[in-house]
Amino acid sequence: MSDYLTTRELADLLRIGERKVYDLASGGEVPCVRAVGKLLFPRAEITAWLNASRSGPQVAEQPLPPIVAGSHDPLLDWALRESRSGLASFYDGSYDGLTKLATRSALAAGLHIREVDGWNRAALLGAVHEAPIVLVEIARRQRGLLLAPGLSGIRTFADLKGRRVMLRQDSAASLREFDARLVEAGLTRDDIHAAATRARTEEELAIALHDGKAEVGFGLGALSGLYGLGFVPLVEERFDLAIWRRAWFDPPMQKLMRFLASPACAARAAELGGYDLSGLGTVHHNGATG
After folding, report:
1. What is the residue range of 279's domain?
2. Using the 8-state DSSP alphabet, how is residue 58 labeled?
3. Coil, helix or strand for 146?
4. Which of 48, 104, 107, 238 is deepest in the core (most CB within 10 A)?
5. Which CATH number is 229's domain given?
6. How far apart are CA 147 and CA 12, in angstroms?
7. Tens digits of per-residue pLDDT, 80-124?
8. Residues 6+ apart with CB under 8 A from 117
9. Contact 109, 254 (CB under 8 A)
């Protein structure tokens, strides 16, 4: 989604003709930019302009439930408990987290969706547009092939042919990444033996491999040491929290973020391994609508 609207896009939004849009721009009545002979309209400023024109009573927003949804992360999960923030968790994958944000059934969601030019932002905009949601980096983390104890001979996705693989649920971003990498390796799911059940969190995946329910899974290196698994790192992904802005300033979220930046959390990340916290707190998107 572009940060600017064209004349046609603004006309469609306002349900008016393009000629009227030109009149508004020439009269200085609407925010616009003139560049290389074209009129462009900053999306964020148009949203603010429309909000400033509203009338009628202000309707109080319903409180957001104190739930962090989306993708499971072992460091974040530990921090939610140790910080005593009072926030609960409901992990069912990045895409489920986007749905819960959009329906206001969670105040935050963990995301790690790979995109052409980065992580998470386009998917967030597609789900909630320019809603007042902040996308904050938590960590960079190592993802790759987790191997059952003692297993060897697997170094790439091409080596998964004929192997017993534990998959994640359909709403998990890691499953879509897994399928994409299978295709890159010239394979499909027909070439692997998928376990009968699915792992709904990163930890469930690691436990299943530890218990011999499958040979390999596409998971986080941070869990390999805890469960005695082999690990083949393949990608460093960015794990973000998308947070409703009004929840960001509330004590529970502030307590969690302070704890994530604490020496205790840094020590835990080092103990788990596979984490880079140097970008913690970086804002990658700040929704415009108030």
Report:
1. 66-290
2. P
3. strand
4. 107
5. 3.40.190.290
6. 52
7. 999 999 999 999 999 999 999 999 999 999 999 999 999 999 999
8. none
9. no
